[in-house]
Every structure is written in structure tokens, then in C-alpha cells.
Write a structure and sequence with these properties.
15% strand, 12 strands, alpha/beta, 438 residues, single chain, 2 domains, 47% helix, EreA/ChaN-like  fold, ten-stranded mixed beta sheet, 20 helices
Length: 438
């Protein structure tokens, strides 16, 4: 099929995004009764992705009873926001509540687009009658080894000081490397010193075994605090394995990370479902690379899995996933790991890529239901190049660094496309990097 014919078919079936209040009505209808909605992003620094994801999430909360937003971030950092939006934290503003996001890449969550959503969520929650379940904000990732250790000990100090002393002793195993978990992973993987695997597992088991003792029926947040402590202990166990595997050479750390995110999502769903006495509905925010079904990509063929695949396998028809694409514009990203974020120009998408095909349609912003069986989606099932920009953008090696082959309709249920996009607005000042386009 030639490009002009495919473009015409896309135009016939696409839903334009114009800024009108009812733009998203067909998407909400397509989501239907799904209880786990995965909403991706093609970059970690594009304002339109964040804003549209927030708009969809707000409607899912208001109209379909979703009570959790789970994000690609560390659990302790997100838990501070969770307490703020549900009205029992100590932070006075959304910006303060995001203060836990200190490590690279700060701008991914410390930006004005996220702050606006957090302000909305807190106002929405506080306006609810007391008996209604307030929507929470949770982290799925596993990088926060030491912050999670501190969170477990802080919790036990409050409910069981003797157990807290045992936790300090066990977690003291990690103290040789201060706040550098990669140094721990290197030393333990090469047998330069003993691993802390046994201690991390023992602490999780003890906390779970004592959980009924720690519940306080007079404290309406007791179960949530216990869940947070258990999740942090689980994170320590999984992070210990992850950092060891970085230097072990036998296990894909990508797979370990996404399995942890899936395990966290399952635990969160079970916890909230028990509290609500019905199936909890959760929105997940993460990169397309984590949420688009890996089985539809060349990474999947190389043995990698991801959260999107695991969620589809776990929840079946109750799972709905949404991806984003953009043709050109600006993005907030670093040039190398650990370097400052910069506002960088995104080059026009490569010829033949999904982004380029979508750009040719005669509408700038739209979404396409990829589950519908028509000529456009059938043609789009044939693998094409797809772009992914994470926290690092290297336009000088665009093809190698940022493109992979995929079958988009097998990755996602819906794709949302913007011809030209803009960078998120970080809370901290960042420089612009005006890159020429070739």
C-alpha cells in the first residue's frame, strides 16, 4: 500500500484533538470497563504527553472510579506525594511534596505539568465526602534502595522499636557503600564481599509475618502505612538483586526492573481492592518502552519483557494501554547520564517510521484506535521504525540511539499523535540547547 493511501485511511479513522472538552469522549468509550489503564510517553520530557495523560487520568478518576495513579518513579518519593494529595502529609504545596525527587532525572517529575496535576488531585480528593476513597499516587520503580531502607526503619521505629533495631542490624550490611548501590552491586557480584540478599529477604519476611500486629483499627491510615513499609522492604530485596545483576552478566536488569514494577502493581491492586472491597482501578504512567507490549518489538524478540506485556498477561481484557508519538519539536533531556537537563530540538522523524506516516495525515493532533480491524490498522501492523527518547537524547546518533522496529497495533490499544511538541517546564532552571536540524 502506498503512503498516500495509508494516510487517507488514517484520516478516515482518526479522532482529532482540537482542545475541545469532548475530544477524549471516544477514547473513554474505548477504554470501557478496563480496570488497569497504562498511559505511556514517547519521551520523558514532552509537555503534550504529560498534559494529555493528566487529562485522561482526571476523567478516569471522575467518571470511572479510578483510585490510584502508579508512576515510573521510586516508591518513597511518590509516597510523599501520595500523602500530600490524600491530605495527611506535612508538605504545604505540590512543589514541596515533589521534594523527594532529588536524583537524576529530576525534571521527569519535578515539572510544572506534574505539579498542576498534583494540585488538581489534592483539590479533588479534599472535596470528597469523608467516606469516599481518595485517589492515591504511588511509585513502581526500584532504584531507591537506601531511601527504602530508611522508610522501613522509620516505620518500625513508630510501631515496633525492637523490630526496628533488628532491621538496622540487617540493613547495616549495605553500609559499607554508603549511598552508592552500584558500588555494592559491583563488590557483591564479583565476590569481593558477601551479598546482603539473605538479610533483605529476612527483613521482608519478618515484616510480613508481623503485619497483623501493626494494624491499628483506630488509625484510618494504618493499613496504608503498613503497605508502604512492606512495599519498601520488597523494594530493598528486589533492588539488591538488581544491583548485583548489573555486574553479574547472566540476568537482564531490564527484565528484573519491569518484573518489579509488575509485582508492585499487583500488590497495589490487591491492597486497594481489599480496602475498597471491590476491584481497584489503577492508571499507570510510564514510558512507551515499559508500557507497550514488548512482544511486538525487536527488544521482545531479543528476550526482553516489560510491564505492558506482564499487565496484559495478568489482567487480559481488563488492561488497556495507550502510547504516544511525535514528529518534531522540543524535548527536555540530558546529553549524557547525570548531566543537566537541556531543552533540545527534536529532529523530524525518519522516513518510513510510524511518526513520519502519522505526520503525513491532514490533521496535526489526533488519536487512533488500533484495536479496530480496518485497512489502516492492518497495514500499520507491519513492523516499522518507532522512536523512543528517554532521559537522554542524542540526535547525532538518532537512528541507532532512538529507533527500534515494532508493530504499533500489537504494542498499544490506542496511539495519540502530535505533529509538533514542546518541552516540559522543570521547576529548576535549565539551559536551552538549540540543535540544528539536518
Amino acid at each position: 500500500m502506498n503512503t498516500a493511501t495509508l494516510t487517507g485511511l488514517i484520516e478516515d479513522h482518526a479522532y482529532a484533538i482540537t482542545g475541545a472538552n469532548n475530544d477524549l469522549d471516544p477514547l473513554l468509550h474505548a477504554i470501557g470497563e478496563a480496570s488497569v489503564v497504562l498511559i505511556g510517553e514517547a519521551t520523558h520530557g514532552t509537555a503534550e504527553f504529560y498534559q494529555t495523560r493528566a487529562a485522561i487520568t482526571q476523567r478516569l478518576i471522575e467518571e470511572k472510579g479510578f483510585t490510584a495513579v502508579a508512576i515510573e518513579a521510586d516508591f518513597p518519593d511518590a509516597d510523599r506525594v501520595n500523602q500530600y494529595v490524600r491530605g495527611y502529609g506535612t508538605d504545604a504545596t505540590a512543589e514541596q511534596a515533589l521534594g523527594g525527587f532529588r536524583r537524576f532525572p529530576q525534571w521527569m517529575w519535578r515539572n510544572q505539568q506534574v505539579t498542576a496535576f498534583i494540585d488538581w488531585l489534592r483539590a479533588y480528593n479534599l472535596a470528597l465526602p469523608r467516606e469516599y476513597k481518595r485517589t492515591g499516587f504511588y511509585g513502581l520503580d526500584l532504584y531507591s534502595l537506601h531511601a527504602s531502607i530508611d522508610a522501613v526503619i522509620t516505620y518500625l521505629d513508630q510501631v515496633d522499636p525492637t523490630a526496628a533495631q533488628r532491621a538496622r542490624y540487617r540493613y547495616g550490611c549495605f553500609d559499607h557503600h554508603a549511598e552508592d548501590p552500584q558500588a555494592y552491586g559491583y563488590a557483591s557480584a564479583l565476590n569481593l564481599e558477601a551479598s546482603c540478599e539473605r538479610e533483605a529477604i529476612a527483613q521482608l519476611i519478618e515484616l510480613q509475618a508481623q503485619s497483623t500486629r501493626y494494624l491499628d483499627q483506630t488509625d484510618r491510615h494504618s493499613a496504608d502505612r503498613l503497605f508502604a513499609a512492606e512495599q519498601n522492604a520488597r523494594l530493598v530485596k528486589n533492588a539488591e538483586h538488581y544491583y548485583r545483576a548489573m555486574f553479574g552478566g547472566r540476568v537482564s536488569t531490564w527484565n528484573l526492573r519491569d518484573r518489579h514494577m509488575a509485582e508492585t502493581l499487583n500488590a497495589l491492586r490487591d491492597h486497594l481492592s481489599t480496602q475498597q472491597q471491590n476491584t481497584a482501578k489503577i492508571v499507570v504512567w510510564a514510558h512507551n518502552a515499559h508500557l507497550g507490549d514488548a512482544r511486538a518489538t525487536e527488544m521482545g524478540r531479543a528476550g526482553e519483557l516489560n510491564l505492558g506485556q506482564l499487565a496484559r498477561e495478568e489482567y487480559g481484557a481488563s488492561c488497556y494501554n495507550i502510547g504516544f508519538t511525535t514528529y518534531c519539536g522540543w524535548v527536555m533531556a540530558a546529553s549524557a547520564w547525570g548531566e543537566p537537563a537541556q531543552r533540545q530540538r527534536v529532529r523530524p522523524a525518519l522516513e518510513g517510521s510510524y511518526e513520519c506516516v502519522f505526520y503525513d495525515a491532514d490533521m496535526p493532533n489526533y488519536f487512533l484506535d488500533l484495536r479496530c480491524d480496518h485497512l489502516a490498522t492492518r497495514e500499520l501492523r507491519h513492523p516499522r521504525l518507532e522512536r523512543a527518547i528517554g532521559v537522554i537524547y542524542r540526535p547525532e546518533s538518532e537512528r541507532i540511539s532512538h529507533y527500534f522496529h515494532a508493530s504499533l497495533p500489537r504494542q498499544f490499544d490506542t496511539v495519540i499523535h502530535f505533529d509538533e511538541t514542546h518541552a516540559v517546564d522543570p521547576l529548576e532552571a535549565t539551559p536551552d540547547l538549540n540543535l540544528s536540524i539536518h
